[in-house]
Amino acid sequence: MIVIKKYHYVIAVLILVAAVFLAMKSAAGREKNAEPRAAENSVEVVFPSTAPEQEDSNAAETNAKAEEPLVGVWIPYMALDVTEKTEEAFKENFDAKLAAAKSVGANAVFVHVRPFADSLYPSEYESWSHLLTGTQGEDPGYDPMEYMVSTAHEQNMQFHAWINPLRIASTTIPPELDENGFYMQNYVNHPEYFMAYNSGIYYNPASAYIRNRIADGAAEIAEKYDVDGIHFDDYFYPTDDESIDAEQYAAYVKETE
Question: Number of folded domains in the chain?
Fold first, then answer.
């Protein structure tokens, strides 16, 4: 058995103090005897006493924007519909809507870019909107979304993409569905993807395939455009009738078992 006595602690402390003293003396000697490095191997760091005025200005502007409250105006598809279906008319109309929003103090617009399982941009998932040419699926020859996003940002306004994830058609809108569109190509072989109720047609959210398709469509917007947000609004679930909901829920349960 080893017995540690009081004087053992005293000896240990003295050894520690001596070791620290020798280490400090050695470091001081190395610093004193060190030779200057060659100029090309040295790096001179200069810390200015004051930051440039431009940097101060940019920082202040960034902080101001970060603290600025979001004030937005919603622009629905009806407000984007123009009688003359041309690129010039569409852009002039959007410019006017943007100016009106800014004039009342808005710093953001929430724009309806997918109102009827269609799109105001070239999409892998949905047909061109009938709002642009009068015919769903017809290429307008330009990218409305690209123009709207860049124009909003030039005006120091945010651009948020607003989509309806479920609605395909209502009573009379669109007038005709694109023959090459997803619904027309799939409703016979995959009726489980859709719901028809009264005069409306909707995507069926009980289908995992449809849920993934909706998510992929939103991701497409985020990947292709510098939007400030994506919003799912007005789901347009066709009814609160328990019978149709029970059928869809049963289908969902069966699919996920």
Answer: 1
